[in-house]
Structure formats: structure tokens, C-alpha cells
């Protein structure tokens, strides 16, 4: 039984150490004439158990403010949509934006719908992307593809005199919805990029009808309100294929393909917020906070050891375990660390010793009454627990309400406060464990108590 | 044993002075709000060589950019303007590079519409009120008495007033911005304040229950004397951490850490010197009422 317990204990310690390993720490040296070159990384699980795929990468997830990148917030124009369709429209808008972002090749994007006071917003986090203009252009366009034909005009003379795009104003039923797929191709003669469209069955039928009645006349292809091209129909086209040629660059054609393939946004979006944080700023802030944290930790340990002696050493040990455990939890959940989150964590190191100080003061008090260390130790722990429990439960109540787990609309839904509440709650629970349970074990061990 | 309660009028005088100055500052000077609240654009550039502030100002005026703050700290240029779109931001960067004859790196740009955060503040306030209510209920149960809860909450409100007021002073003299980080600091202060008070109240509760209610003053003083070391020690560890952050941490979190530092100090101060005298007063009143037939 005892053996089993120690076995599990060491297994857990081993796991925590594996999870806490630094990221991309490279060793490259020569040892006994052998070249040694390897990189240390935290634990990575990628296995299959009973057909269940398990994949987990224990790395610190940094928020945009630390990693650098862009955040865009779009506001939906809901004026032209029925109330009962709103929810669906927003969700599909979110999915479409997600598709477009994935085409962009961003790792770990975050897309959220936010709703408050009758305003509907979609926020898009793009870590590592600093080219704001093209991101806004790609994500924000409604991308409603439409085909327009000539409005019948009686007077032939007038018709030839008006510019071509003013004549092409009659909507056809054909839109982006009847397109199965768009592809980037190149004109076999000129080598210019173009966009090939493959229609759905319904789209193919419509397209053949439209081309049939417009032979010899131009047809306009619009993306939102922008005219893409005005090809002149040579003959009736069957088979459901069409090509948009225009004066595209390869890049433009690619974006057009992405926009058509991801589908049209069901409602127009307007950008209301954009942030762009360079990676250098975040990195230097992280480095400074890290050193500040180390220095603070050193001061706390120094203070504890000077004031409480041997007990202080034990508290410092518990504190280091607290740090390792919290980091493992942050990586396992994973908690996205932002600047306030990191600050909260550093602050919690200061708070974590609180339960130790409470317990030690109680023990000292009992010792002053002339009791033996063992009795003082047991009494001190028992007495301190009440205060520790009440104090921490109130903190947890605050964290719970701020985190807003049920996503109530009248409570904060924005990331910063929630992230703070999460790190606070994790800090409190972890520090309870290390400050009470671990410290107790350590004291028993070092003072050889039973 | 130290007779802490004897000097309660001095404590109240200190609290009233600090809060009074703070409230004066809030009403007279208010805060510098960050763009999250008023809308606008923040631009931060890194330059290769030192640039002249006057030159940048002239370019801003020439480009007809409505800016309300410009500062240059060595090789970092910081500009705060009315909301700009990304096209204008790009164009402005090119203008700057051309006129200053140096390469610039845009290390941060933020544009926020004005209405976004007002509602968030309101929601945070509602959350705070619910949290206060939750604490009241929990403490009333845990301490078997409403007075403990009420005294703790009043001390917490005291701390909120202190931090709000002193931040307004920081905002006026050092341009500390009222932003979401500051709100986070206020929330931390809130939970820390109650946390700290409970530890002292726990001791008072122990004495008042064990030794009867003969002499409230005597036992409260005894409890305070015994917990004062723990209060100071605990705050010292947090203050060490925060001082390290204020002095060594990055510029973006300096005022945040400072606000937390103020919160920690007032949170520690208010537990023995504000919450406890209020509790004593409330308890004495209750006992007096009881003794009346």
C-alpha cells in the first residue's frame, strides 16, 4: 500500500516535470568525442488508446498581447435581416469567417461572437499576423457574388452610348450560392491568372439559360458592389463551368477564390476595432516580467527564510512546488496567458505564502504557550484551517462571478476580466493545496514527525 | 498587548483624508481614459535613431491628424489620436519615414470604436455588486452573524474608494490611464481586502465565542495584537512581488502594478484599522440592544 502510494506520487511528480520542461531549449556540445545535439521540449502526447485519438501538446499558450498579432472586431449590420434568422445568420457568419481565416494559414486563431445591447460583433484573433490591411480585406468582405444582365432598352442609340456597367443592372437569380467550387487557373494563352467556377446542378441550369438569352451581349459579374468583369457571351454554355477573367494579380485571384469558396457572409460586416501588436513588444514585456517575477520570488524566499528559519525554508520549497504545479495546470488546460494573466500569476506567488504564514504564526503562538513542537504543529494547523478556508472561499466566489461560467449577458464577457478570474481561481486552489497539504507533509518529513 | 482601538479616531482621520483627497481629484481632474473607453487610435513606433518631437508634431498637423497626445521616449514614439483606419495608418507611417529620414517599425497599433467598453464597465459593476452580495451571504453564514459581513464589506468599499481616488491623482500627475488593466486591479483589491479582513475576524470570532462577550474591546485588541505580525508579513511578500514588477516590469504594466500595490497596502491597512473598529461598534450596539429587555 505504501509502496503503491509512493509510486503514484513519483509518477505525478515525473509528469509535472515533463510538462514543465522549457520550450525549444537546444543543447549542442561535444562530450567524449561525441557530438550531442538535442532540443528539450515539454511533453507531447500523440497516441491511440482503444481507438480514441489523444493529442495534446503541453506548451504555454500566449495571448495576442504577448505573442504579437492582430485582433479585429467586426460589427454585423442586422438591419436587413429578420429577427428569427439572426442567430443562424450570425453563427454561419462566424463559420465562414473561420474558413477564411484558415485559408489565411493562421495557427490557433480565435473567433468569437459577442452580443450586447442589441449589437452583434465578431472578434477575430490572428496570432502572428501583422498585415492588417489584407486581413481586414479578406475577412470582412461580404463576398456576395452576383451575375447581372442587360436591362432591356428600346432605344438602340441610347443603349450604345451609356457605359457598359450602367446598362448591366438587371439581377439574375444566379449568385454565389449556386457555385460548388472556385479555382485559381491560368489562361493557357496569356498566362494571366483567372478564376474558374464550377456550378452546382441548379447553377448549371440557370447559367445555361442566362447565356442562351444573352448570346452576343455582355454579362456582368459582381463581387459585392465591385464589378469583376464583363465578358461578352459567345454562345450558350452548358456543363456548369465558367471562367472569370479580369485584370487580376495572382494574389487578387487567390483571395477571390478564397472568398467565393468560403461562401458569402449572410450579413454585411463593418470593422469597429483593430489592434496590431508587434512581436518585439510582447517579447520584451515577457522578459521583463519574467525577471521581475524571479527577483520578487527571491525577495520573498529571503524574507521567509530570515524570519521563519527552517519553517521558512519549507515554505519556500512549497512555494516552488506551487509555481511548478500552476505552470503545469496552465499548460494542461490550456490557459491563454495574457499580460494581466501573467501579472496575476506573479501576484499569486506573493499570496500563496499567506496560508503558510497563517499556519506558522499559529504554531509559534502555541509554542509560546510552552507546548511541544508536535502538539503545537497539530494545533496550529487545525486552528489556521478555519481562517484559510473562509478567506479562500470568498476569493473563489469573486473569481466565479467574474469568470461568468454560464455566459450571462449582464455579466462581463470580455476576455481580460475572465482570464484574470481564471488565473486567480487556479492560483487560489493550487496555493491551498501546496500551502496546506504539501507544507504539512514537508514539515512532517523534515521534523521527523509521525 | 497593544491597545489598537484607543486610536480609532486617528485611523478614521487618516482614511477620511486619503479618501477626501481622492474624491476631490476624481471630481476635479477625473481620469485619462484609455482608448478602450473613449475610442481612438494608439500608435507606437520604434525608430533607428533619435527623432525630434517638434518634427513629428509638424507632420501630424500637416497630415491633419487630430492627435491628443504625443510622446517620444528615446527611440520610441507614442501617439494617441482620434480613430484612424488602417489605410491612413499606413500612409502616415510612410510620411513619417520620408520626413524623418529613418526606418520605423510599428510595434503597436490599436483602434477602438468609442462605445465598446462603456457597457463592459457597467457589466463589471453588476458583477461586483453580485460578488458583494455573495460575500455578505457567505460570511453571514460562516461567522454566524451579519455584523462581521457588514464590517468586512464596508472596509472593502473603503479600499475601493482609496484605490479609485489615488489612481485619479496618478492619472492627473503621471498620465496613468483608466483602462481594463486598472479594472482588473480594482477587482483584485476587492477580493484581497475581504480575504485579509477574514483572517483577523476569524481570530476575533474565536475569542468572542470562547471567552464570552464580557469585554469586546479587550479581546479584539488581543486578537489584533496576535494577527498584526501575520498581516504585515503576508503583505510584505505581496509588496515585494509588486515592487519588483513596478521597478523592473515592462512599461505597459507599470501603473497596473502600482494600482495593485496601492490596493494591497490599503487592503492590509483597512482590516485592523477600519473593519475592526466598525465591527466593534456594531457588536457593542447589538449587545446593548440585547441587554435591554
Give a written overview of the molecule.
The complex is a heterodimer of chains A (450) and B (293). Chain A has helices spanning 2-20, 64-67, 83-104, 132-140, 156-161, 164-167, 201-213, 250-262, 279-308, 310-332, 339-368, 373-403, 415-446, and strands at 25-31, 34-40, 44-49, 52-57, 61-62, 69-76, 110-116, 119-127, 145-149, 170-175, 179-186, 193-199, 220-223, 226-229, 241-244, 269-277, 336-337. Chain A is α+β, with helices and mostly antiparallel strands and 450 residues long. Chain A has a 4-stranded antiparallel β-sheet. A 4-stranded antiparallel β-sheet of chain A has the order 10-9-13-14, with helices on one face. A 3-stranded antiparallel β-sheet of chain A has the order 11-12-15. In chain A, strand 11 and strand 12 form a beta hairpin. In chain A, helix 9 (279-308) runs parallel beside helix 11 (339-368), helix 10 (310-332) packs antiparallel against helix 11 and helix 11 (339-368) runs parallel beside helix 13 (415-446). Chain A is elongated and about 110 Å long. Chain B is built from 9 helices and 6 strands. Chain B has a 4-stranded antiparallel β-sheet. A two-stranded parallel sheet of chain B has the order 1-6. The longest helix of chain B has 38 residues, at 254-291. The mean pLDDT of chain B is 83. Helices cover 71% and strands 12% of the residues of chain B. Chain B has 2 domains: 4-34 and 116-291, Multidrug efflux transporter AcrB transmembrane domain (Multidrug efflux transporter AcrB transmembrane fold, Up-down Bundle); 40-112, 2-Layer Sandwich (Alpha-Beta Plaits). By secondary structure, chain B is an alpha+beta fold. The interface between A and B is large, with 71 and 72 residues. Strand 16 of chain A pairs antiparallel with strand 5 (104-112) of chain B.
Amino acid at each position: 500500500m505504501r509502496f503503491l502510494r509512493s509510486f503514484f506520487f513519483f509518477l505525478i511528480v515525473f509528469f509535472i516535470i515533463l510538462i514543465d520542461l522549457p520550450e525549444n531549449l537546444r543543447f549542442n556540445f561535444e562530450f567524449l568525442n561525441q557530438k550531442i545535439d538535442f532540443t528539450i521540449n515539454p511533453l507531447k502526447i500523440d497516441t491511440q488508446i482503444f481507438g480514441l485519438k489523444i493529442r495534446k501538446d503541453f506548451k504555454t499558450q500566449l495571448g495576442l498581447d504577448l505573442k504579437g498579432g492582430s485582433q479585429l472586431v467586426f460589427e454585423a449590420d442586422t438591419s436587413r435581416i429578420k429577427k428569427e434568422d439572426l442567430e443562424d445568420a450570425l453563427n454561419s457568419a462566424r463559420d465562414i469567417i473561420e474558413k477564411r481565416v484558415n485559408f489565411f494559414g493562421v495557427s490557433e486563431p480565435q473567433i468569437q461572437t459577442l452580443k450586447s445591447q442589441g449589437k452583434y460583433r465578431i472578434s477575430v484573433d490572428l496570432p502572428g499576423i501583422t498585415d492588417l490591411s489584407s486581413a481586414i480585406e479578406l475577412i470582412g468582405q461580404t463576398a456576395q457574388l452576383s451575375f447581372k444582365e442587360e436591362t432591356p432598352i428600346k432605344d438602340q442609340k441610347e443603349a450604345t452610348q451609356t457605359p457598359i456597367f450602367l446598362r448591366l443592372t438587371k439581377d439574375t437569380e444566379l449568385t454565389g450560392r449556386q457555385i460548388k467550387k472556385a479555382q485559381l487557373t491560368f489562361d493557357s494563352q496569356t498566362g494571366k491568372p483567372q478564376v474558374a467556377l464550377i456550378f452546382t446542378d441548379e447553377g448549371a441550369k440557370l447559367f445555361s439559360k442566362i447565356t442562351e438569352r444573352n448570346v452576343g451581349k455582355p454579362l456582368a459579374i459582381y463581387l459585392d458592389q465591385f464589378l469583376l468583369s464583363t465578358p461578352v457571351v459567345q454562345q450558350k454554355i452548358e456543363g456548369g463551368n465558367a471562367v472569370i477573367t479580369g485584370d487580376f494579380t495572382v494574389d487578387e485571384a487567390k483571395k477571390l477564390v478564397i472568398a467565393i469558396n468560403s461562401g458569402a457572409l449572410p450579413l454585411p460586416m463593418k470593422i469597429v476595432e483593430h489592434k496590431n501588436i508587434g512581436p518585439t513588444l510582447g517579447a520584451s514585456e515577457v522578459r521583463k516580467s519574467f525577471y521581475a517575477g524571479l527577483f520578487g520570488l527571491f525577495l520573498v524566499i529571503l524574507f521567509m527564510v530570515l524570519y521563519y528559519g527552517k519553517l521558512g525554508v519549507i515554505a519556500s520549497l512549497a512555494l516552488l512546488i506551487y509555481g511548478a504545479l500552476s505552470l503545469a495546470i496552465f499548460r494542461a488546460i490550456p490557459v491563454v496567458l495574457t499580460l494581466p494573466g501573467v501579472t496575476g500569476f506573479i501576484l499569486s506567488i506573493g499570496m500563496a505564502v499567506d496560508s503558510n504564514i497563517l499556519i506558522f504564526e499559529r504554531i509559534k503562538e502555541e509554542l509560546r504557550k510552552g507546548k511541544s513542537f508536535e502538539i503545537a504543529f497539530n494545533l496550529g494547523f487545525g486552528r489556521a484551517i478555519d481562517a484559510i478556508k473562509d478567506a479562500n472561499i470568498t476569493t473563489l466566489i469573486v473569481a466565479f462571478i467574474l469568470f461568468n461560467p454560464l455566459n450571462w449577458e449582464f455579466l462581463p464577457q470580455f476576455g481580460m476580466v475572465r482570464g484574470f478570474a481564471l488565473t486567480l481561481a487556479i492560483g487560489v486552489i493550487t496555493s491551498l493545496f501546496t500551502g496546506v497539504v504539501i507544507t504539512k507533509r514537508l514539515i512532517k518529513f523534515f521534523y521527523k514527525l509521525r | 498587548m497593544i491597545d489598537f482601538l484607543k486610536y480609532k479616531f486617528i485611523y478614521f482621520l487618516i482614511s477620511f483624508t486619503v479618501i477626501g483627497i481622492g474624491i476631490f481629484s476624481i471630481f476635479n481632474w477625473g481620469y485619462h481614459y484609455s482608448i478602450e473607453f473613449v475610442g481612438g487610435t494608439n500608435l507606437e513606433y520604434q525608430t533607428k535613431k533619435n527623432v525630434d518631437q517638434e518634427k513629428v508634431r509638424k507632420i501630424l498637423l500637416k497630415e491633419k491628424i487630430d492627435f491628443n497626445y504625443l510622446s517620444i521616449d528615446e527611440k520610441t514614439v507614442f501617439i494617441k489620436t482620434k480613430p484612424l483606419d488602417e489605410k491612413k495608418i499606413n500612409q502616415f507611417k510612410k510620411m513619417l519615414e520620408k520626413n524623418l529620414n529613418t526606418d520605423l517599425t510599428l510595434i503597436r497599433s490599436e483602434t477602438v470604436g468609442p462605445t465598446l467598453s462603456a457597457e463592459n464597465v457597467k457589466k463589471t459593476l453588476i458583477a461586483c455588486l453580485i460578488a458583494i452580495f455573495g460575500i455578505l451571504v457567505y460570511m453571514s453564514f460562516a461567522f454566524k452573524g451579519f455584523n462581521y459581513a457588514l464590517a468586512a464589506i464596508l472596509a472593502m468599499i473603503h479600499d475601493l474608494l482609496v484605490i479609485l481616488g489615488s489612481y485619479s491623482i496618478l492619472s492627473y500627475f503621471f498620465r496613468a490611464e483608466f483602462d481594463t488593466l486598472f479594472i482588473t486591479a480594482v477587482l483584485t483589491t476587492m477580493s484581497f481586502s475581504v480575504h485579509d479582513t477574514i483572517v483577523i475576524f476569524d481570530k476575533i470570532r474565536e475569542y468572542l465565542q470562547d471567552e464570552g462577550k464580557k469585554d469586546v474591546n479587550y479581546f479584539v485588541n488581543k486578537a489584533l495584537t496576535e494577527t498584526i505580525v501575520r498581516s504585515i508579513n503576508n503583505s510584505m511578500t505581496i509588496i515585494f512581488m509588486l515592487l519588483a514588477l513596478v521597478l523592473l516590469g515592462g512599461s505597459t504594466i507599470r501603473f497596473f502594478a502600482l494600482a495593485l500595490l496601492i490596493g494591497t497596502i490599503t487592503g492590509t491597512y483597512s482590516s485592523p484599522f477600519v473593519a475592526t473598529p466598525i465591527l466593534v461598534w456594531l457588536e457593542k450596539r447589538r449587545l446593548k440592544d440585547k441587554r435591554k429587555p
